[in-house]
């Protein structure tokens, strides 16, 4: 596939391995304008309403990597895949809990610029078939004069379709941010609005308590997790602010916020330690 105007536009999508009700609370904590929509079985997609990479002058991959990291840390039980592209490159970043993010990049003409091991780690963390799915991903790591960066990320989502991913019509990786936003609105995507810290915190606690981590976020375990989040979040926040990186500063701020929430969890719920 040769390069097309759509593949040279700048844009991003956040694919979450969870249903919209689970994604909504942590996504609201990002305090960004995002559109939320179902994207198949056990998948949701977040579409940026704005273009912070233009407003802040920060590369799109750095912005969405910070968002994905913050969401994955907040969620703890499901991974977040950030797809991004601009005039020169395209790629993905996978965030899963406190694990180090893994990513891969292609140049605009489709030339692979990542490590094969990163693709294998990607497959493992998403629970893909270690034989069939990994074999389907391997062509994405080889040179192909007929596949540009747009074709590469579309091919990646085609492999993920085996896990139930089904992007809404019009949400095509590689298209410009304006087109993605219009398509999301046309499909009835939910606009996530910031309702203030009190409502956001309670919504997040309700979501966590009703999920798999609920029984483990009280007492000593809650305090241990909260302390770990604070220990990781404070330096990350300082690093992001120092380098004027909005995405990483957001991730650090959310880690700090979740650390505080975890330490206060028992008191908020009135549960004895």
Short description:
This protein has 273 residues and is of the alpha+beta class. Helix content is 47%, strand content 14%.
Can you describe this structure?
- With 273 residues, the protein is an alpha+beta fold.
- Helix content is 47%, strand content 14%.
- The chain has two domains: 6-191, no CATH class; 195-269, no CATH class.
- The chain has ten helices and seven strands.
- Strands 6-5-4-1-3-2-7 form a seven-stranded antiparallel β-sheet, with helices on both faces.
- α1 (20-28) packs antiparallel against α8 (197-209).
- The longest helix has 24 residues, at 246-269.
- It is globular and about 55 Å long.
- The protein starts with 10 loop residues before the first strand and ends with a helix.
- The relative contact order is 0.17.
- Residues 1-7 have low confidence and may be disordered.
Set down the secondary structure blueprint.
Layout: E1 11-16, H1 20-28, E2 34-38, E3 44-48, H2 52-55, H3 60-75, E4 80-85, E5 89-95, E6 102-107, H4 116-125, H5 132-137, H6 149-160, H7 177-186, E7 190-192, H8 197-209, H9 220-242, H10 246-269
Antiparallel strand pairs: 1-3, 1-4, 2-3, 2-7, 4-5, 5-6
* Number of contiguous helices: 10
Strand tally = 7
Mean pLDDT over all positions: 81
Give me the side-by-side strand order of the main sheet: 6-5-4-1-3-2-7
The description of the largest β-sheet is: 7 strands, antiparallel
Estimated structural class: alpha+beta
What share of the residues lie within helices? 40-55%
N→C terminal distance: 60 Å
Strand content: 5-15%
Task: Give the domain tally.
Answer: 2
Query: Can you tell me the residue ranges where pLDDT is under 50 for at least 5 consecutive residues?
Result: 1-7
* Radius of gyration from the alpha-carbon trace, in angstroms: 18 Å
